[in-house]
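Dear Dr. H.,

I hope your travels went smoothly. While you were away I took the liberty of generating a structure for the chain from your last submission, since the lab meeting agenda had it listed for discussion. I wanted you to have the full record in hand beforehand rather than looking at slides cold. The sequence, exactly as received, is reproduced here:
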Amino acid sequence: MISGDLGTLVSVVAAFLIAVTVHEFAHGWMADRLGDPTPRLRGRLSLNPLVHLDLIGTLLLLFAGFGWARPVEVNPRHFSNWRRGMLTVAAAGPLSNVSVAFAAGLLFQLGLTGAAPALGRLVHAVVYVNAMLAVFNLIPIPPLDGSRILSNILPPAQALAYDRLAPYGPLVLLVLIMMPGNVVGHLIRPGITWLADAALGGLRL
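The corresponding predicted structure, in token form, is as follows:
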């Protein structure tokens, strides 16, 4: 993901800041819309990247090609239907990244970056990183969004059993990430490539 080229590095870091900021803001905004003031009270309804960054998630992005931000705290007791509310809030993050990827890809498809190579690199990075964040977060391992989506789709009894695995999720995820051969990367790369290509209309930098 990251090469030794300084321009590429700057583009990817900028794209990551955009992606995680939009992602976490979307979680908070949706929770607020559904009646939970917790994200607003915690200062997470912000487009300032500094309030959303997670050190380990950022470092992994730079060195492993995928990463995450600091999760937005949500209190489902404020939702009229807490399962539907949690499902909607969880899905808002990945969907926001898909939206940003396609919005950035439209600049390529309209030919608006052809005369500016630096802008082209940045837009390409925005597409790729947002595709990465969307697909990575759909992995159904806690604490990723995919686990919250799955938990609130399953029947209550199965969801309860699944939720008992939540304390072990971060360890499982870390083991998979650290395994030789980049297991997580191989699993999510086809989805990232498909989504990025779709956003770019099949165009390449």
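Two observations you may find useful: The mean pLDDT is 90. Residues 29 and 98 are 16 Å apart (CA to CA).

With kind regards,
E. W.
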